[in-house]
Amino acid sequence: MTRTDSTTPIWGKIAIVALILIVGGGYVIKMLTNPFAGMDFSIYRLGAMTIFDNEGFTQELYSPTLNDHGVIKPPFTYPPFAAMLFLPFAFIPLEVGMVIMVVGSAVVAWWISTIIYNYVNAHGRELPLQQYFGRAGTIAMLTILVVAGGPWQRTLDLIQINPFITALILADFVRPATRVPRGVLVGIAGGLKLTPLVFGLILLVRRDWKGIATLGATFFGTIALGFILMPKDAPEFWFSALTNPSRVGGLNFVDNVSIQGWLLHFGLSEGAVKPIYYALALVTIVLTAALLYQLERRGAALAQVAVTASLMVALSPISWSHHNVLLPLLVAVFILDAFPTYFAVQPAWLRVTATVFAVVAVLGLYLSPIRIASWFHGSADGLEQLDPGALAVSAIPAFCLWVTMTLWSVAALSAPVRGTKVEPVQYGSVRSDAPLGWWGARALVTESALVTESAESVRAATSREATA
User: Fold this and answer.
1) Taking 60 as the threshold, does the pLDDT of residue 3 lie above it?
2) pLDDT digits 0-9 by tens, 425-451
3) Could you say which DSSP state residue 385 is in?
4) I want to staple 78 with a disulfide (CB 3.0 to 4.6 A). Which of 47, 82, 299, 362 is the partner?
5) How far apart are CA 69 and CA 59, in angstroms?
6) In angstroms, rounded to a whole number, what is the distance separating the alpha carbons of residues 323 and 162?
7) Which residue, among 321, 326, 322, has the nearest Cα to 309 in the 3D structure?
8) pLDDT class for 144, splitting at 50, 70, 90?
9) Beta bridge partner(s), residue 256
10) pLDDT at 247
């Protein structure tokens, strides 16, 4: 039985204390003592400092080497709007800003863990040991697992902006869009980093024209702000820096988990990769749209976000492993939505194949390609010159995730799934516009009902064939 009382058992309190120690005593101390910790945040801050030349910093925003970490000299790769949003950090000490970012990232991880906890319980299930940890303690343990995984560990090491971009995207799809139209937060996220614009595909599948218009207007508003307030830097970004992929990093670096990344890691040349990538990207977009439509029929808003996040990582020319911060939610969606509903009515060979690929993908990406490559390489240094075999092995999890998503999309196109009768979700009202609410606490359709309906569809189809 699920605990309903508000008290937190002793084990739950221990989990909460452990989380505080891990975030405060681990990451915060690490970032204050390791000169390479918080490298990405220092870039954001320096980008903001160029606006008013804070602390005597006079470099141009899009200079090739905005930040100098010795052998690493990364540039600022985001639109001018991002530099403007980071402006408050230009007026406070670097260390204070780093603490704010780490704590804020931990809060986002807690929120995602809360959504997963509520989503699991809304499906009539419990998380392992939930009865011993209580609600808050279980969420704390989930958060520890989240921040200990490869994507979040590297995110916190670099003090990346991705948790906050993810929070904007997730919030836009779980909140009730009663006064502020859906799409505005995704538009802001797109103004920060462009790639979140792919989440407009969810609105397109829903035929939410108001949401699409809002997303577009918000995004172009961020561009306009850049041209108005930063007239020198905005043209340089949009007409020069944006089209220079070398500013982001090497396509063939081990941590690139995009389609282009694992194709290169498997030994293909850059010339051979391009046409294969475009073909795979087109197929992936079409299949994902079909999957999103089936998820839409069932009101599976969280699953739509997790699936589209996977699409975003796959399509971008360079997607570092720490961009995959919604991996924990995707795991929950696999367990609660994909396998009980979509794969349950498929042939045994397809179920087994999808399970194997999903397990390899999740475990490998949780560990992270860099860690896997380091084991084969013998060190985390010099990963730019990895042995081809080690590079290929480190790419297997990203490839397996793409295969898993493709198989799920194919399963969504099967007759049993398409033929299942479900209650359509009507958007535009307080009750149904956000089927799961801010915290993922209410599911419109349970997995058991969907499995039953799908199984009945299979039996009916088999009976008709036998009769014929």
Assistant:
1) no
2) 554 433 334 445 555 554 333 333 443
3) G
4) 82
5) 15
6) 6
7) 326
8) very high
9) 320
10) 63
Q: Please give the C-alpha separations between residue 144 and each of 19, 162, 177, 343, in angstroms, as whole numbers.
A: 6, 18, 31, 30
3-state secondary structure of 438: coil
DSSP 93-162: -HHHHHHHHHHHHHHHHHHHHHHHHHHHHHTT---TTHHHHHHHHHHHHHHHHHHHSHHHHHHHHHT-SH
Helix (H) or strand (E) holding 188, with range, is: helix 184-193
Contact (CB, 8 A) for 32 and 153: no
Please give the Cα distance from 51 to 452 (Å, whole number): 59
Q: With helix as H, strand as E and coil as C, how does 280-307 read?
A: HHHHHHHHHHHHHHHHHHCCCHHHHHHH
212-238 b/e (C-beta count within 10 Å ≥ 16 → b): bebbeebbeebbebbeeebeebbeebe
**Residue 233 near residue 83 (C-beta atoms within 8 A):** yes
> Of 47-56, 159-168, 283-292, 353-362, where does mean pLDDT reach its minimum?
47-56
Between residues 131 and 58, the one the model is more confident about: 131
> Which two tokens mark 375?
């084991």
Please state, in angstroms and rounded to a whole number, the distance separating the CA atoms of residues 14 and 413.
Answer: 46
b/e code 46-55 from CB counts within 10 Å (16+ = b): bbbbbbeeee
Q: Angle formed by the axes of helices 130-148 and 150-158, to 10°?
A: 60
Q: What mean pLDDT comes out for the span 355-364? A: 97
Return the residue matching tokens 């490839």: 399
Burial (0-12, 13-18, 19+ Cβ within 10 Å), 335: middle
- Report the distance separating Cα 369 and Cα 390, nearest Å: 10
C-beta separation of 116 from 302 below 8 A: no
Q: Distance between CA 304 and CA 312 in Å, rounded?
A: 12
Q: How far is 300 from 185, CA to CA, in rounded Å?
A: 20
CA pair distance 237, 394, nearest whole angstrom: 33
Residues in CB range of 429: below 8 A, 6 or more apart: none
Q: Write out the DSSP string of 367-378.
A: H-HHHHHHHHHS
How many angstroms separate the CA atoms of 112 and 227, rounded?
35
Which of helix, strand or coil describes residue 48?
Answer: helix
Residue 66 has pLDDT above 50, yes or no: yes
Give the tokens for residue 68: 């100098």
Nearest to 144 by CA among 193, 180, 106: 106
CA neighbours within 13 Å on the CB side: how many for 256?
23
